[in-house]
Design brief:
Strand content: 5-15%
Number of strands: 9
CATH architecture: 3-Layer(aba) Sandwich
Number of helices: 10
Strand order of the largest sheet: 1-3-2-4-5-8-9
Radius of gyration: 19 Å
Number of domains: 1
Structural class: alpha/beta
Length: 279
């Protein structure tokens, strides 16, 4: 798929930060790794929570296997990690971002826990192409998108997206465009993301635990309209908050990060048991 793996470093591996009885499972998005969840995990751990960042199958050092992975592989990994965490901890919270939010919705419909936080939940693309992916994946099994598109590396938003997908490539290096033209992406991979999102929407109608949703008002991927449509299908109580950013809710360099951190930590605090005072 890629002529290199930009996610091979130890910072992209599965991690656990030991804490107290409360525990949170944090699920990254596509094409992320647990590294993007670590700042939030550390914020929860400062409050005494055990925090585990899950590496989904086919990501990080396992990137070469991503083209053969199915949505079921990802959802099963979340359920298994959640089940193991629930054995030793209480309360238990699940936090997912982007595609990880969709997988988290599926998981809590099958494994009851205390609370769910979804950040920039990506479950459907508002494009006519989205429902056609099952057909397109058979007609065009492989895409080479960078042969067809030109990336404006001077644009701030374009550079953010580039650095998210290719953190070890220098956008100012003249060799970079040539490397990108070699990138091949299986079309079926996008259809697996579509399937995960569709399953999340169906699952939402059966979930009744407290839900926190954090939405970037400038998000052009997980758009506000689509998030609100998802929440209308949610059966339980919802706390909805908008922040002045795009899809990069966990970028600690962005001014919105502090608000996102505060929202999630406060949500976690509300899940904690009230201490019993003996007089």
């Amino acid at each position: 798929m890629l002529p290199f793996n930009p996610f091979n470093g130890p910072e992209h591996a599965d991690f656990t930060i030991p804490g107290g009885d409360p525990a949170a499972l944090l699920v990254h998005g596509f094409p992320g790794t647990p590294a993007e969840m670590r700042p939030l995990a550390e914020a929860l751990n400062e409050r005494g929570w055990t925090a585990r960042g899950l590496l989904l199958p086919g990501f990080g050092s396992d990137l070469d296997s991503l083209p053969s992975r199915r949505a079921e592989d990802w959802s099963a990994a979340v359920r298994e990690a959640l089940f193991e965490l629930r054995k030793k901890h209480s309360p238990v919270m699940l936090v997912g971002i982007s595609m990880g939010a969709a997988l988290s919705l599926q998981a809590v419909s099958q494994i009851p826990i205390d609370g769910l936080a979804i950040l920039a939940p990506f479950w459907q693309l508002s494009s006519f192409v989205w429902p056609l992916l099952p057909i397109l994946s058979r007609i065009f099994p492989v895409l080479m998108p960078f042969r067809l598109m030109k990336v404006n590396y001077k644009d701030v938003q374009a550079r953010k997206v580039f650095q998210r997908f290719f953190p070890r490539l220098n956008p100012d290096d003249p060799r970079t465009p040539g490397e990108l033209r070699k990138v091949k992406i299986p079309t079926r991979m996008f259809d697996e993301i579509r399937r995960a999102g569709s399953a999340a929407y169906q699952a939402a109608a059966h979930v009744r635990i407290p839900l926190l949703t954090v939405q970037g008002v400038h998000d052009n991927l997980a758009r506000t309209k689509m998030t609100n449509q998802l929440l209308k299908n949610y059966a339980g109580p919802v706390r909805y908050a908008e922040v002045q950013t795009g899809h990069d809710l966990l970028d600690v360099r962005h001014p919105a990060w502090e608000q996102v951190r505060r929202l999630v930590v406060e949500f976690a605090r509300r899940l904690e048991p009230v201490p019993i005072r003996i007089r």
